[in-house]
Amino acid sequence: MNKLPAPNILETFLDIFPSETSIAVADKNKFVYYRPSQLINLQIKPGDEIRKGSATYKALLSKQRIFTYIDSNVFGISYFGLSVPVIKNEEIESVITAILPIRTDQSTPAIFTVKNNDRWFPISINDIIYLEAEHRKAKIVAKHISGLHKYHLSDIEQFLPADKFIRCHRSFIVNMNEIAEIQPDFHSTFLLVMKNGDRVPVSQSYASYFRKNLMF
Fold first, then answer.
1. In a 3-state reduction of DSSP, which class is residue 189?
2. 112, 149 Cβ separation under 8 angstroms
3. In degrees to the nearest 10, what's the CA dihedral of 208, 55, 82, 171?
4. Could you say which DSSP state residue 140 is in?
């Protein structure tokens, strides 16, 4: 009988991610645990074989932690997967995968309020240039002001309209209308020059997703 990873490891995963995240645990061949969320459910059942191309499969293949976009041709639903191998005696004992939704249908607020120098500033969603993960909160950079929002980047992402905002890196979400230029970078990655002059990276994990959405 396959055992789950040490309880403290699994509990840490469950605590770190928002409730919209599904969690899967696999051994070297099959899934042994699955907790779906209300927002994304890959319909995995304990005993199911690990599908080729999934985040879990990629982590087993690379034998290292990966964070990547997975197309809908694997499970029928596109998702972002963070897969972390659990190593024991220099061998992979199991892989824990956090499955994050691309977007939800939650209504978009017109205003996000940020804190800057002990004051709060309302920012119109149309003025946001990009968002960055910083100190477990989201830094929102807008046309006239920037500051920290109380929510984590992954929480805010659920409220951003998909026709305007796109995640391009684990730590960055950009307003596509504020991109001035896309420059090639190393290892099939890109560098975005925003209209305010700031530069934002596109990581390899998001490169194909980014190209698909911007049609180039």
1. coil
2. yes
3. 0
4. E
The answer to whether 168 touches 205, Cβ cutoff 8 Å, is: no
Q: Which two tokens stand for residue 151?
A: 């929510």
Number of H helices, E strands in the chain: 5, 15
> What letter does residue 18 receive in the DSSP assignment?
-
Measured from the Cβ of residue 207, the count of other Cβ atoms closer than 10 Å reads: 18
Strands 111-116 and 91-101: unpaired
Torsion (CA) 119, 120, 124, 126 in degrees, nearest 10: 60
Element of type H or E holding 55: helix 55-62
- Give the CA distances from residue 85 to residues 52, 55, 71, 92, 143, in Å, rounded to whole numbers and listed in that order: 16, 11, 21, 6, 41
| Rounded mean pLDDT for each run of 10 residues along the chain, 216 residues in total | 59 70 92 90 95 95 90 88 89 92 70 94 96 92 95 84 90 96 88 97 89 90
- Give which of 169, 102, 159 is closest to 132, Cα–Cα: 169
Question: How close are the terminal C-alpha atoms of the chain, in Å?
Answer: 48
Q: What token pair was written down for 161?
A: 């309209």
**Model confidence pTM above 0.70:** no
